[in-house]
Amino acid sequence: MTTVVRHEVVILGAGMSGLCMAVKLKRTGIDDFVILEKQPGLGGTWWDNRYPGAHVDVPAPVYSFSFAPNPDWQRRFASAPEIQAYMQRVAERFDVLRHVRFSTRITDARFDDDHGRWTIRTDANDALDARFFVCSTGPLNQPRWPDIAGIDQFAGRRLHSARWDPQADLSGQRVAVIGTGSTASQLVAPIARRAQRLHVFQRTANWVLPRMDRRYHRLDRWLAHLPPYAKAVRAAWVLVLEAGRRGFDEGTLARRAMLAAAARHLQRQVPDEALRKRLTPDYPLGCKRIIYSNDFYPALTWPQVELVTDAITRITPGAIVTADGREREIDTLVCATGFDTVHLLSSLQVTGRGGRTLREAWADGPEAYRGVTVAGFPNLFLMLGPNTATGHTSTLLFIEPSADHAIACMRAVRDGGHRCVTVRDPVFRAYNQALQRRLAGSVWAQCRSWYRMDGDGRIVALFPGFTREYVRGLERIAPADYEFT
Ligand code: NAP
User: How remote is the CA of residue 117 from the centroid of ligand 1, in Å?
Assistant: First the structure.
């Protein structure tokens, strides 16, 4: 017989947003929750993405929670292990770890309208009964392998950047990297330093800006222990990044400055004109995620590295074949080919009101109200849900207000003696229609990217506005928006 354990809240995923939700629940006085995490450790994306050179691409002072500043960052752009260690410390400090069940996958979640509760089943063959269900997996969760003929027949080692094998040693190997996005731009130089030969397969050239990285010295760390200094540094970075949002609008000064910086960066780092030409993007800046890197371009000029821009036609057991008929023999294939950002939560069956599944509700792509709630799915809250990614700032600035909003909804249910809360259908629709109208004319509609359905359809991942607009939208729970039952 399956055991059923009752909780007030079940959280799916122990990444940044799951951790944030847990701390905020505790601070609100809700201690009866459990986090189910499929991996054996804390970190979410920072657990999954342990490829060489992984680091955050926004400054660390804004990649820490407002309630848990970290005065000990070693660099402005923190590495994946450093971020993971920070998360571990936050979890310990706020006593979250005892709430986490590691190595446990949720297989199925079903809402019972009569009782206003979710029944959540796991692969450990047990079930949880919870009033509120929080899905904090985010869009960058399921690795996407390239759909290239023959890839399954490849006989060498095959790695995906988001499922990196920490034991993998690429020293002296012939390696291929497929992809030249944010991830590839971080791993190309570290791999090139070890490999005998590295072929980098680029389908689309991307915009690359300098990464204004620097080491934090003892004085920086001493100052960062002073709360007013730490707050001022964080606030300053928030403003700087927010100003960068202007760079996505045609004709702005910020955009001109970014275009000039990108051109200068390419010119300085790649002396060879023919290579520069192949690295020049053919889509508007900002349409795909901008890359911030100081070592990607230089690595492509090293003698052991080759940039391949001919299309890949197939993969054989020992080589990659390109459209010009050339075959490059390799020992290891590294796919830095990103994530499935459309089929969110597809590894589990989520059934809401009237037996309707999330898969059915999202048949034309995922959508949510302000990224947090979904019509027909009461007491369900998404963290980093549809249309909450940004191209200019830290996701943590979106995670914190989303968690506050979800908790405010939970409190309204509890305090009001209600069974459940759900966003009103017309509000949900109007919000998403307005969002899509706005996105249709934006820079993000002008190229293929992971922000869009099937690469070139509806934009399902990105929020088009400034952070303050998103935050303001979540500030209150309007009775006109939500229905309490
Ligand atoms: P991505 O931006 O989706 O890039 C995937 C790359 O693989 C692209 O260059 C793509 O080419 C290429 N690709 C995919 N399928 C291919 C195929 N069949 N044949 C050839 N090339 C193929 O994925 P990502 O680089 O992993 O980055 C995803 C997001 O993760 C980023 O935008 C960022 O938000 C996040 N990220 C963040 C950090 C951080 O520091 N915080 C670090 C890494 C990643 P096309 O461009 O032609 O599609």
Answer: 38
